[in-house]
Design a protein that fits this description.
Nitroreductase; alpha+beta; 4-stranded antiparallel β-sheet; NADH Oxidase; single chain
Length: about 180
């Protein structure tokens, strides 16, 4: 699928309902490549990625927080974005950039995605969502879990936001 970057971001919307068909290996490879090519501060690349396609694991991930993660149960693919905070002091920013690259790559391939914030979110059971993801995916304690991106073919159609909906009042010239 060939489209301009501006058209890509105009059309992109989060999807929380997916078809059951799996994401092809070729498309997954391109998404992973995009993640690995994402910029990071001083090229330290503190991020790592856990690719999940197993239905039972996706179901377990969907329950790690009470609000906002349920869609992962029906996603045919998820990518957990984790980082080593000892490697880079701006790992939060670097993982956010990588997650954005993942979402834009998915969009460019005719897929949809949705970001599930994990860092600093509670699990609804007195613990933290990141701890639950770490347990489910056997992520080492030294790594921080930033987010989990659900990806698949959309089972819902959403139009991109209209330009008239953009809040240009948030843009300031030459100073605030």
């Amino acid at each position: 699928m060939d489209q301009s970057f501006m058209q890509l971001i105009r059309d992109r919307r989060s999807a929380r309902a997916f078809e059951t068909r799996p994401v092809e290996r070729e498309k997954l490879s391109l998404i992973v490549e995009a993640a690995l090519r994402s910029p990071s501060s001083r090229s330290l690349n503190p991020w790592q990625f856990v690719v999940v396609q197993d239905g039972k694991t996706l179901e377990a991930l969907s329950s790690v927080k009470p609000h906002g993660g349920g869609f992962l149960a029906k996603a045919p693919l998820a990518i957990a974005v984790v980082a080593d905070p000892e490697r880079c002091d701006v790992w939060v920013e670097d993982t956010a950039i990588a997650a954005t690259y993942i979402q834009l790559a998915a969009e460019s391939l005719g897929l949809k995605s949705c970001w599930c914030q994990i860092r600093l979110r509670d699990d609804g059971k007195g613990g933290m969502a990141a701890h639950r993801v770490r347990e489910i995916l056997a992520i080492p304690e030294a790594l921080e879990v930033a987010s989990v991106i659900g990806i698949g073919y959309p089972a819902e159609e959403k139009q991109g936001h209209l330009q008239s909906e953009l809040d240009y009042g948030k843009v300031h010239d030459e100073g605030f």
